[in-house]
Specification:
The complex is a heterodimer of chains A (395) and B (459).
Chain A (H helix, E strand, L loop, with lengths): L2 H37 L1 E3 L3 H10 L9 E3 L21 E7 L1 H4 L4 H8 L3 E5 L7 H14 E10 L2 H4 L11 H8 L3 H15 L6 H5 L1 H19 L8 H10 L1 H13 L5 E3 L2 E3 L7 E4 L14 H11 L4 E6 L5 H15 L4 E4 H4 L5 E4 L8 H17 L5 H6 L1
Parallel strand pairs in A: 3-4, 3-5, 5-9, 9-10
Antiparallel strand pairs in A: 1-2, 6-7, 8-11
Helix pairs in contact in A: 4-16, 5-7, 5-13, 11-12
Chain B lengths: L5 H21 L3 H19 L4 H21 L2 H29 L14 H16 L9 H9 L12 H4 L1 H4 L6 H34 L7 H32 L17 H7 L2 H12 L9 H19 L3 H20 L1 H4 L3 H15 L1 H4 L2 H12 L15 H16 L2 E3 L5 E3 L3 H16 L13
Antiparallel strand pairs in B: 1-2
Classes of the chains: A alpha/beta (395), B mainly alpha (459).
């Protein structure tokens, strides 16, 4: 073949391939957008139950009528409602791991107590020295002077090396932890104005990560607005593997769907609806006794920082389904937090032999999260009745 | 440069349209063309991150003035200082995070440092060039501007091939003329690169990542091998695809660069494989690490030690982690064993040797892809007796392997381009080859895999 013919063949293929690709991209994007619009919001199948139970406690559960379909990661710091709140705006600040991120509905607690609740909760949020310093700063900024800080972590998130790496929101948490009260105030106000788009300093704009974000946006925009994107079908994973290796494909699919099977609460939104996959487990009541000899040098280091935070504090033990786990949390409280924190023990709070819906990792889901929130509300109402009084008197 | 991103593709189309208009008017005035190449190179690098351009200026100043001084005084001490300085700068960017975390165990204490795109490549280019000047194998750049083009040359800056000053600077005086022959070779190289990257590298990348995400613990022997062989296909498609495109774009600009890959998987020994894989780096290691260490001049034992040390350097160059050092050591040890066995090994049928080389390379690549703990686990799955539980309910479970080998066989057998004796690519313009190329190109544009960053960008 002559060189000329080679050039013509290759260029012609480029043109044909490019046009077909842009056409496919256009059709696919349109189809995807329509599909997403259909799937975005769905009816919450537990709404009736929420409404009936809520009525007993005088709760308006209308906000749970619809559930959104969560796609992708929940770890978006920008979506944490706490961070856009103003200074000294919370009566209660709850910091916790996935047991609280997915298993507690702040609106329910707020309605039961009449107080403003802020939450900083996330899956895999470990409680180490860095997190403790960050908690100190967010408490001093967001909590009212007579506010209550609630710590609610599972055993594994507390029994970490005191200096281990923070797994989620790490940049933000490390930045926040390294500041004093004044520095944090400046940091959070700059961060918030940056997020709200009101002010972006020149240094921020030319910082490496920010600049790369702009380039990524340009690429995205070229794809979205001009369809200049190659269609990216997960060719093997979605189309070939089901045929060639169905058992492995099924296993991976199941693994992926395990996290999409429940109605969860992602801070203030109801997400990931796929009913019927939760199962009920009996919670452990207060019969499990703490181990009085329990000691852990890492928790000791962390508790030293937390205990010194100058506000009212409560250590919360969430609903547990395992004797050992429950006893461990009681032991930690007994050894390190008893002196300076009150106790909200949901194991004692709930009726004996009660069952709650949980997922495979024993996070409360579906109605389980709703009942756990009611228990928290009840405990706060009873034990912290003085909370928010200052607000009433000033009014 | 991320050649397969939509933004870069649009920029390249506009750039070459303008370039060829200028070329039409200034084809005999290389100075004008050099300005266009220099400006475009700086702009392309600035597209990645503007402030990083100053780093390139620094390297250009070093090459220009230190190169000239080196030629004047030919001081080995001065050369050592320069090489040490370049290694230090490279090490700072590459190992900053590793050291800070190791020493302080607290990343909150450190300030953010970005790793300049392609630093490993242009550091190698500069070190090699300075040594060549010292050895009288190359002339120092005549102007700072020449040095700047050499350092910033956009087709190769982010992922090689590693340039040789001796070959590069002659094109600043006289370009390779743009003829239908060079244009056809460029077209084939760019098309081949797109096929390798989009159709093979990205699709296999999804397959490999998909398998690894779910952990190596559950893999049986077939899945473990399929994953690693998939990775070999991915890294070959990804890296040789980038190199093909870089060489193709360079040729369009009038710079003829040697091939960087020469069908490595038909190699019948590790030694041969490394003469066919990332050729510019293999030869760089030979000329600037292995030979200065003494090469094969001081007896067999010293030669093998030098080989292992050279490949450990290769491992360290590739990444920050013990796994890369282990990976490099394995390469050096196997080449040493092959050399020690001599004719006892080469007497074995070449097909058997190809088979051994390929599968041993795949096994060693576990340390390239995974950290030590997971690589060891995967090796156990690949060779362990307990993982011999084939899921025979899926008789066609071997299809991924058939697809991976299918492409490698097409690529290595059909050969879209051949490599001549001087190491430069030549177009293979047999009609069936061009038809297969066009069909695969069409498939690549319609069925690219999920976008994966070029693996070698992180080096």
């Amino acid at each position: 073949m002559t060189s000329k013919k080679v050039i013509i063949s290759v260029i012609a293929t480029f043109l044909v391939g490019g046009i077909v690709s842009v056409f496919l991209q256009y059709s696919y994007v349109k189809h995807e957008m329509e599909k997403r619009a259909r799937d975005d919001i769905t009816d919450n199948p537990f709404h009736d139950e929420f409404r009936k139970v809520g009525a007993v406690y005088g709760l308006n559960m209308e906000f749970t009528r619809k559930a959104g379909c969560m796609v992708g990661s929940q770890l978006e710091l920008e979506k944490l409602p706490l961070l856009v709140k103003g200074p000294k705006s919370c009566d209660i600040l709850l910091v916790g791991d996935s047991s609280m991120a997915w298993g507690m509905i702040p609106e329910v607690v707020e309605q039961m107590t009449g107080l403003v609740m802020g939450t900083f909760t996330s899956e895999a949020l470990i409680l180490n020295v860095t997190t403790a310093k960050m908690i100190r700063n967010i408490a001093s900024y967001y909590l009212k002077d007579d506010g209550l800080l609630i710590l609610s972590f599972g055993g594994w998130t507390q029994e970490q090396d005191a200096n281990s790496m923070v797994l989620v929101y790490s940049n933000w948490i490390y930045s926040a932890a390294g500041l004093d009260e004044k520095g944090f105030k400046k940091f959070i106000e700059e961060w918030r104005s940056y997020q709200l788009g009101s002010r972006r300093g020149i240094l921020q704009q030319i910082a490496f990560s920010e600049y790369r974000k702009i380039i990524a946006e340009m690429k995205k925009s070229l794809g979205k607005n001009c369809n200049l994107n190659l269609l990216q079908l997960p060719l093997y994973a979605e189309y070939i593997e089901p045929l060639v290796n169905p058992s492995w494909y099924r296993h991976k699919k199941e693994m992926k769907e395990m996290i999409r099977c429940y109605l969860r609460w992602n801070n203030r939104s109801v997400v990931m609806y796929m009913p019927g996959k939760g199962h009920e487990k009996k919670s452990k009541h207060s019969d499990s006794k703490p181990d009085l000899k329990y000691r852990n040098k890492d928790i000791a280091a962390v508790s030293e920082i937390l205990n010194r935070i100058p506000c009212r504090k409560a250590y919360q033990i969430h609903i547990n389904f395992d004797d050992a786990k429950y006893a461990k949390l009681r032991s930690i409280y007994n050894a390190y937090y008893r002196e300076s924190c009150g106790l909200i023990d949901l194991g004692i709070e709930h009726p004996k032999n009660e069952s709650y819906e949980v997922d495979e990792k024993e996070h409360t889901v579906n109605t389980g999260s709703f009942y756990q929130s009611i228990l928290i509300g009840k405990a706060l109402k009873r034990d912290y009745a003085s909370l928010g009084r200052k607000k009433e008197t000033t009014r | 440069m991320d050649f397969t991103s939509n933004l870069t593709a649009v920029i390249l189309i506009i750039f070459f349209a303008l370039y060829f208009i200028c070329y039409r008017f200034f084809k005999d005035r290389t100075a004008v063309l050099n300005i266009i190449v220099a400006v475009s190179s700086l702009l392309m690098y600035a597209l990645w991150y503007p402030p990083a351009v100053f780093i390139l200026f620094g390297y250009a100043v070093l090459v220009r003035y230190a190169g000239a001084t080196l030629r004047r005084n030919r001081s080995v001490g001065f050369l050592r200082v320069l090489v040490g300085l370049l290694v230090l700068v490279w090490g700072f960017f590459k190992y900053y995070y590793v050291f800070v975390v190791m020493i302080t165990k607290d990343i909150s204490a450190m300030f953010n440092v970005f790793i300049p795109l392609g630093i490993s490549f242009f550091t190698c280019t500069v070190i090699g060039y300075l040594i060549d000047i010292y050895r009288n194998n190359a002339e120092p750049p005549e102007t700072l501007f020449d040095a700047l083009i050499f350092i910033t040359f956009w087709p190769t800056i982010s992922s090689g091939p590693i340039l040789r000053g001796g070959n590069f600077f002659k094109y600043l005086k006289e370009r390779e003329p743009v003829t239908t022959k060079t244009l056809s070779l460029s077209a084939v190289l760019i098309a081949s690169g797109i096929i390798k990257k989009l159709l093979i590298g990205d699709n296999l990348g999804s397959y490999v990542n998909w398998n690894l995400i779910f952990g190596v613990d559950r893999m049986d022997i077939h899945e473990a091998w399929a994953t690693m062989i998939g990775f070999l296909g991915q890294i070959y498609g990804d890296f040789s695809g980038y190199s093909d495109m870089a060489i193709g774009f360079s040729l369009l600009l009038g710079f003829r660069l040697p091939a960087n890959f020469n069908y490595p998987y038909i190699a019948s020994s590790f030694g041969e494989l490394w003469r066919r894989w990332h050729i510019s780096f293999s030869f760089w290691l030979r000329d600037y690490v292995y030979i200065p260490l003494g090469g094969s001049r001081s007896g067999k034992a010293r030669k093998y030690l030098n080989l292992v040390l050279t490949f450990i350097v290769s491992g360290i160059w590739h990444g920050t982690g013990l796994n890369y050092i282990i990976w490099g050591s394995i390469q050096g040890i196997v080449i040493s064993i092959e050399d020690a066995l001599g004719t006892r090994y080469t007497r074995i049928n070449y097909l058997v040797r190809r088979f051994i080389t390929f599968f041993l390379f795949a096994a060693a690549a576990t340390f390239f892809r995974l950290d030590v703990k997971n690589a060891a686990k995967l090796l156990v799955r690949m060779f362990g007796y307990d993982s011999l539980n084939f899921r025979m309910s899926t008789a066609v479970a071997f299809l991924p392997l058939v697809l991976i080998f299918g492409f490698l066989i097409i690529d290595h057998w059909v050969k879209f381009y051949t490599v001549d004796k001087q190491g430069f690519p030549e177009v293979n313009n047999k009609p069936h080859v061009i038809i297969i190329l066009c069909v695969l190109l069409l498939l690549a544009l319609i069925f690219p895999g999920q976008d994966q960053p070029f693996i070698y960008f992180k080096f």
